[in-house]
Design a protein that fits this description.
The protein has about 325 residues and is an alpha/beta fold. The protein contains eleven helices and 14 strands. Helices cover about 35% and strands about 20% of the residues.
């Protein structure tokens, strides 16, 4: 196993309610296997350490290095879940093992998970939080897209909502508050969102403080992001949320994400598949996971100044399934 840390500059600045960044730092795991004839094949996976969940580059690398001997002596994806908690480190290794399996067997990951003909998907495009005027300008530039995801979560969000809807009247709009609303403004913001025709509201309240959602009208479906990581979280979210946002870095890889998707659907939740800001290598497994999702937010590479080699095809608001040269 080898691990590589890379920094990818972001186009401009990516801003949400609690932070602002100009670069995306990713860690790539590569697992190399040599068969009995001396031929080498390798699998790759990429992750994004996320401070919101207590992760740093150093802590994620330490986790990876800790399980390297076990992985190199044959521990598979199920065993990996017993060695590492859900999070970025497990995600990169899990996805590398899936990619390696595809290379070893000649059977694509799509086929292995029962998705033999993956199709292009409509993906949201993210607009960072800023003043209503600046956000409106960004929405005008992106108004040709059918689905926009708009970051909110500050003071005066009603003005932001009104501004972006006027700027992109033909686009469906998701609002993502990133835990930025509170009990003294959520009712006003929900009413403004419903009046404006918003299609989804993501994580309005802080994780752990979301019980208030049980007693509020859901005229617009409400999606759990920071509150939903693995299948263990779903029971507590029943009655609070309508949709679950699945991200590989939260779930700890494609293996757990598939279980989370299936359990969420069985419980009546809608499914959104999202991402951190990262390259196409991170998006590739998520595109397969998202084939039947109600909402897809896999625009990470579009926010970067450049992408990894053999990156995903993005065209006319769609993201296409990965080619073997990239992953899977």
């Amino acid at each position: 196993m080898t691990f590589t840390t890379q920094s990818w500059p972001i186009k401009g600045r990516f801003s949400i309610a609690r932070e602002s960044r100009t670069e995306a730092v990713v860690i790539t795991c590569k697992i190399i296997d040599t068969d009995d004839k001396g031929r080498q094949v390798s699998g790759r996976g990429e992750c994004v350490p996320y401070q919101r969940y207590g992760e740093t580059n150093e802590s994620v690398l330490t986790q990876m290095q800790k399980v390297e001997p076990a992985v190199c002596t044959g521990v598979g994806r199920e065993g990996l879940a017993e060695l590492l908690p859900a999070g970025a480190a497990r995600n990169a290794i899990d996805c590398a093992l899936w990619d390696l399996s595809a290379k070893q067997t000649g059977t694509s990951v799509a086929a292995q998970i029962g998705c033999r003909m993956p199709k292009p998907l409509e993906t949201a495009f993210t607009i960072s939080i800023d003043t209503p005027e600046i956000m409106a300008q960004a929405c005008v530039a992106a108004s040709w897209r059918s689905l926009l995801k708009v970051k909110v979560g500050g003071e005066n969000d009603v003005a932001r909502i009104q501004a972006v809807v006027l700027a992109a009247p033909d686009s469906r709009i998701i609002l993502d508050a990133n835990e930025g609303w509170r009990d003294d403004n959520i009712t006003e913001n929900l009413e403004a969102a419903a009046k404006a025709g918003i299609v989804l509201i993501e994580q309005p309240l802080p994780a752990g403080d979301d019980s208030l959602l049980q007693n509020l009208p859901h005229h617009v479906p409400i999606c759990a992001d920071e509150s939903a990581h693995t299948t263990d979280d779903l029971d507590a979210l029943d009655g609070l949320y309508d949709v679950i946002n699945i991200k590989l870095d939260k779930a700890g890889g494609l293996s757990e994400a598939l279980k989370l998707r299936d359990k969420a659907k069985s419980m009546g939740f809608g499914v959104m598949v999202g991402c951190m800001v990262s390259t196409s290598l991170s998006m590739a497994p998520a595109v397969l996971l998202a084939q039947d999702a109600e909402f897809v937010d896999l625009d990470g590479p579009l926010l970067l100044k450049s992408d990894c080699d053999n990156g995903l095809k993005y065209e006319s608001g769609l993201v296409y399934p990965p080619e073997p040269e990239l992953w899977g």
